[in-house]
Design a protein that fits this description.
By secondary structure, the protein is of the alpha+beta class. The protein contains 17 helices and 23 strands. It is 36% helix and 23% strand. α10 packs across α15. The mean pLDDT is 94. The protein binds adenosine-5'-diphosphate (ADP). The site of adenosine-5'-diphosphate has 15 residues, from α11 and α12.
Amino acid sequence: MMNKRYLVALDQGTTSSRAVVFTLEGHMICQAAQEFPQHYPHPGWVEHDPADILSTQIESLRAAVRKAEIDPEEIAAIGITNQRETTFVWDRETGACLHNAIVWQCRRTAPLVDTLVAQGYGPVIREKTGLVADAYFSGTKLKWLLDELNLRERARKGEVCFGTVDSFLAWHLVEGHPHVTDATNAGRTMLFNLHTQDWDDELLAMLDIPREMLPKVVDTAQVIGFLRQDLLGVKIPVASLVGDQHAALFGQACFAQGDVKNTYGTGCFMLMNAGEEFRLSKNGLITTMAWRLNGKPTYAFEGSVFMGGATIQWLRDEMHMISTAAESEAVAAGVADTGGVYLVPAFTGLGAPYWNMYTRGTLVGMTRGTGRAHIVRAALESIAYQSRDLFAAMARDCGTSSAALRVDGGASANQLLMQFQADLMNVPVLRPAVLETTALGAALLAGLAVGMYSDLKETAAGWHVADTFEPHMEEALRQEKIHGWRRAVDAALHWAEER
Ligand code: ADP
């Protein structure tokens, strides 16, 4: 045990596969990443080639360990974290995938979801899984594959396996081909009952999915086997499977009920530790697993902003107002405020807490003096307003506001955005030293599973705050701005109503 000094996370994302090497203290040593192609066979459809996912993941693992110049013997454990909901089916005998993976973004099963909702399944799905019926989750994607490939009979005989990315990687990277998934990933299928912590017969019947094809659900931190010897030449336990947002919640050390993190990427994902009791949100959030440790579930509330950093990409690529995402900060800082301008970037509708898919982007409050800097600033601020809406929804569900917001993701590098976020929510924004919180979370969970830490508190020693943004805005001004944002959202919703 003495020479075990490192943890490795495999972070299988939507556009790239990465591997990150950490010390047991949570310091990042190095990382390697490989992008892979996206496939769009029809408008709104998105697929990944399973062979690409596997080869880029293996390549990045080897590259990261090589770059770190460590002896693989010193790796205590490996954790796997992944893009969620993406759906695979493969032959149990040969391991060969029977179709490309259907990616979480894929909308091909939206009509199927409309049918389920029309049949009255919405409330059952919500009560049992904590989710809102949507094509995003794996269940309808799997039904589509069973129908399209005519696989039900074979699936019933146990000849076909279903899995999300974690299962697929575990099957291929772990000796003995375990067919497993963890509770955080299972919770994104729309088939997993959060109360019983098992696949749900009624939901399986709803989609005619044979139980025989489903993976065994394991804890989020649990040794599921050893890495294939041919990969790094040594026996390393694979000790955690965890969905990416759940890993980030763990990597941000959100171990107490009410602890909350927001990841500012293309979209924003806010998750709050909601404790050990299952509760449904009254404010448009979904309930999901935070993690399951020693058989004990911890739940989370989750909300997302569709257009987070993507709003900044839009400024850059469509409006040509900035040439790089980072430039948005300097341009926005050129004016003291937006001069009353609000941008509601509802380009694809609004998610929680509004849930209106027909809303579209709206720019209000312009005067003859409005310039580029005001609009760039309004775009940045819109990310903070939307995130604040989620934060406030979580506070309403919990009855108390969280004491701080922990942040990560590409756009969390923007100081102006982070300061405005703190001002708007009236709580400190905490930015940790390691912004790779997803990878860190998976690594720490794996470390926990193999006994590198005795409890969560010890695990949390791997989380350090690098920057704190304290709120400074006067209350009256804060309320005025929030009021202005609400009016802007109302304008966008009103425009959609007139459709
Ligand atoms: P993802 O994991 O979704 O690809 P990242 O965490 O890599 O996203 O973050 C990239 C996103 O953050 C992009 O949408 C980009 O526009 C935005 N972004 C990156 N840097 C900045 C910045 N300094 N200011 C504002 N937005 C930024």
